[in-house]
Amino acid sequence: MGAITVMNYQKHKITDSEIVRRILSGEKELYEIILRRNNQKLYRVVRGYLTNEEEIEDVMQDSYLNAFEKLHQFKHDAQFSTWLIRIGINQALMRIRKTNKTYSLESCSSHQNTRVMEIPDYNQPNPEKLLIGQESKAILERTIDSLNEKYRMVYILKEVEGMSIVEISNCLDLSNSNVKVRLHRAKSMLKEKLFELTSKTELFEFGNARCDRITQFVIERI
């Protein structure tokens, strides 16, 4: 099946469940659709645990390959994205344990003070506006990064990714009330002026070039 057909499946919004069935029936090239639909969400999830961009992409690749190998275990009454996120979280935690890294509030703050994420904003051609937009997003991202991991993950999934309390509960194996408590505490720890920017969907973007690269990597190996 060629690229044109794959794009047609994208256009007609075939369900993830149907895609999985077709992949298991031999149309493994359709896995590309799964990757492109979930790259942004998976990036933001893994980004909640790791800050090194190379490590993040490695974990994403491992997550997709692991998911492909276990695709027969996917239960079609569940959301594929939730199933994939759980795999991504496990892979991220494995990476943290493997490299013996600790992500405390102090270490995250210290690390982020020397790093500014470059996030292009093509909707603002004016260089001055572009710089202001990039600096605002960088400040907000550093503030989110400074949160303790358990609060940071809930905050990213809810306020940046837009997932529901129930979806987050399923992903993190937490009760709905626990998710709400962590979310409230996360918000209270962020400055009010930064909290006003949390509706920006371009935060922690996973751009087209990176999306293509990780998609190609996984497709070549399945």
How would you characterize this protein structure?
With 222 residues, the protein is mainly α. The protein has one domain: Orthogonal Bundle (Rna Polymerase Sigma Factor, Chain: A). The protein is globular, with a radius of gyration of 18 Å. About 11% of the residues have low confidence.
Summarize the structure.
The chain has 222 residues and is mainly α.
* The CATH top-level class label: Mainly Alpha
Low-confidence stretches: 101-125
Mean pLDDT, all residues: 78
Radius of gyration: 18 Å
Strand content: under 5%
CATH topology: Rna Polymerase Sigma Factor, Chain: A
Distance between the termini: 15 Å
Shape: globular
Any idea how many domains?
1
Count the E strands.
0
Assign a percent range to the helix content.
Answer: 55-70%
User: Which class of secondary structure composition applies to the elements?
Assistant: mainly alpha
- Main sheet record: none
CATH superfamily annotation:
RNA polymerase sigma factor, region 2, helix turn helix motif
Helix and strand run: HHHHHHHHHHHH
Shape-level CATH architecture: Orthogonal Bundle
H/I helix tally:
12
Secondary-structure topology with pairs:
Elements: H1 3-11, H2 16-24, H3 31-47, H4 53-69, H5 80-99, H6 105-112, H7 127-145, H8 149-160, H9 165-172, H10 176-189, H11 192-195, H12 208-221
Helix pairs in contact: 3-4, 3-5, 3-12, 4-5, 4-12, 5-9, 8-10, 9-10
